[in-house]
Amino acid sequence: MKKENKTSQKMVMVDHAPTLRTVLMIEKTLEKIGELISIAELKRSLPRKVMHKTLLTVLDYLQWSGKILISTKGVVWIYSPSEQLSKLKIGGIEL
Asked: With contact defined as beta carbons under 8 Å apart, do 59 and 30 qualify?
């Protein structure tokens, strides 16, 4: 007797991707604070409400890009653009 192989259909769950506006808002807030802050405090200090999962996604991205450091005590902004790069931007040629 043959057994049928039933293929299970898996639903692909797409996570809600944060918008650029949300990423920039979180970056600006962290940069303005400039010191170690817990994720709960960060969430309260944002100008708009952000879903927790979205906030964690943005924080993961910012840590991956080297702009923040996430520790057990909280999050801190560590990115500092070089002055030489800023000078090149000002004196550069626009294409």
From this structure: no
